[in-house]
Write a structure and sequence with these properties.
The protein has 361 residues and is mainly beta. It has three domains: 3-118 and 178-238, no CATH class; 126-175, no CATH class; 252-352, 3 Solenoid (UDP N-Acetylglucosamine Acyltransferase, domain 1). The protein is built from two helices and 44 strands. It has a 15-stranded parallel β-sheet that branches. It has a seven-stranded parallel β-sheet with strand order 3-11-14-17-22-24-26, with no helix packed on it. A five-stranded parallel β-sheet has the order 30-33-36-39-42, with no helix packed on it. The protein starts with a strand and ends in a 9-residue tail after the last strand. Residues 5-221 form the DUF4954 domain. InterPro entries: DUF4954. This is DUF4954 domain-containing protein.
Length: 361
């Protein structure tokens, strides 16, 4: 067992030395505390004030890909961080200013760092949806209800209400700041992630082989969130039971481009296609293969947008010219190869197709 520290005068333990058998080949920088008393962390309203390394008692095993591993700290450089009881930190190049909660797992990662005391983990970030030149921004926060985001995006005429909402988000953002610490919550797992920065990772969340920064991932054992498969997630909020390939519930974006778009639940997006500058909070539609739902440039500026209605089906290789409004054309179908001009359609359950043949009177 090899342990290195800048100064052993700043390394403390409050528990039995027998508990250190699971702390091996680590380098500690800053004030280090090895002990069993997790309550030595000073916390008030989710804000961490202490600047030391705190590790807990390691007596239990944790599960990694359904295989038990002994908890503890192994082969890792740990700087100004907290590692609580029965967590596992192993083979990680740098763990910096990070709170690793009970039973959490950090294995095979590159750098996990926090960039300062004013990080917001994605809270307060303005989502630019609809028209790409601005005007429909939605400031987001971690547990923001979906219907509230839809109302803020739809209702832009009341300046005082929008200002009150923005003030609310700023207040929320300040209250949830963690004093410059990442948070890896109870039973969360970070596996083989090359770079993690400024994150809040909720209970039981799973991050694998991905780069994540300035983001909050809300999760629980009953509603596990995950970021998998060499993904990159930046300045984002993932809510409970969310995955990087899912937006709203049961919405799947498999291929293609989805830019500056507010995509509601139950939208199918399984093929190579594009949707740009669309505000679609009611969702329940489909974007077919080759669909070009994104003609939002009148000349050079991307100054137009589309409002699809609930359940609208964009068929194969359609071309939708902007601006268009299909909000009153719920569950309409735009057939294969159709090119629509800018318009407002007020006929629900419509079939939009090219002319076939005329039936004489």
């Amino acid at each position: 067992m090899c342990l290195l520290a800048d100064s052993w005068d700043t390394v403390y333990t409050s528990g039995s030395l027998a508990t250190l058998i699971r702390v091996r080949n680590c380098t500690f920088r800053g004030r280090v505390h090895l002990g069993t008393n997790a309550f030595m962390i000073k916390m008030t309203s989710y804000v961490l004030f202490s600047y030391r390394i705190v590790t807990g008692s390691f007596t239990k095993d944790v599960m990694v890909d359904n295989v038990p591993f002994p908890s503890g700290c192994y082969n890792t450089t740990i700087v100004d961080s907290f590692v609580l009881d029965d967590a596992l930190v192993q083979d990680t190049f740098l763990l910096h200013r990070t709170y690793v909660s009970h039973g959490a797992v950090v294995v095979g990662c590159g750098t996990i760092t926090c960039s300062g005391t004013d990080v917001t983990n994605g809270n307060g970030t303005a989502l630019k949806v609809g028209v790409e030149i601005g005007g429909r921004e939605i400031a987001m926060f971690a547990d923001m209800p979906f219907h509230l985001a839809a109302v803020v995006g739809e209702t832009r005429g009341n300046v005082s209400e929008l200002k009150a909402y923005e003030d609310l988000v700023r207040t929320y953002t300040k209250k949830v700041q963690c004093d410059g610490f990442n948070v890896i919550a109870h039973q969360a797992k970070l596996l083989r992630c090359p770079k993690i920065r400024d994150v809040f990772v909720g209970d039981a969340a799973v991050l694998e082989d991905s780069v994540v920064s300035n983001s909050t991932i809300l999760s629980s054992p009953a509603e596990v969130s995950s970021i998998l498969g060499f993904s990159q997630v930046h300045s984002s909020i993932l809510q409970w039971n969310a995955h990087v390939h899912s937006g709203s519930p049961n919405t799947a974006i498999a291929e293609g481009e989805c830019t500056s778009t507010f995509l509601g639940p139950f939208v199918g997006f399984h093929h190579q296609a594009m949707i740009v500058a669309a505000f679609w909070p009611r969702g329940r539609g489909n974007v077919g293969y080759g669909a070009n739902v994104g003609s939002n440039h009148t000349l050079k500026a991307p100054d137009q947008e589309l409002w699809p209605g609930e359940g609208v089906f964009f068929g194969l290789s359609v071309s939708i010219k902007y601006p268009s409004n299909f909000t009153n054309a719920a569950y309409s179908v735009i057939a294969t190869g159709v090119s629509t001009l800018p318009q407002k359609l007020d006929m629900p359950f419509a079939l939009i197709n090219t002319p076939g043949h005329n039936i004489p009177d």
